[in-house]
């Protein structure tokens, strides 16, 4: 009795589908937990924007 080549391909596909669905389930369950985790705020996060002369010139050019 000879095994068909397509039989091995089908098994590979079924394994991939099972692993993919398991990974999707884990991702969907863990996503809300990750989104709900508190984020550390630092003092430097509010100082990311600096208005320089170049920026002021750009804003001035918009109103012309």
UniProtKB/TrEMBL annotation:
Keywords, comma-separated and alphabetical: Signal
Domain of life: Bacteria
Coiled-coil stretches noted in the UniProt entry, renumbered to this chain: none
InterPro entries membership: Formate_DH_TAT-contain, TAT_signal
Region described as Disordered: 31-51
PROSITE patterns per UniProt: TAT
Gene3D superfamilies listed in its UniProt record: Single helix bin
Keyword Signal: yes
Signal peptide: 1-35
Bias kind Low complexity: ranges: 31-40
Protein name according to UniProt: Formate dehydrogenase
């Amino acid at each position: 009795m000879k095994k068909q080549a397509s039989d091995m391909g089908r098994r590979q596909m079924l394994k991939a589908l099972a692993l993919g669905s398991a990974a999707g389930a884990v991702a969907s369950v863990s996503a809300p937990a990750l989104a709900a985790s508190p984020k550390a705020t630092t003092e430097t996060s509010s100082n990311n924007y600096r208005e320089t002369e170049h920026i002021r010139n750009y804003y001035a050019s918009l109103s012309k």
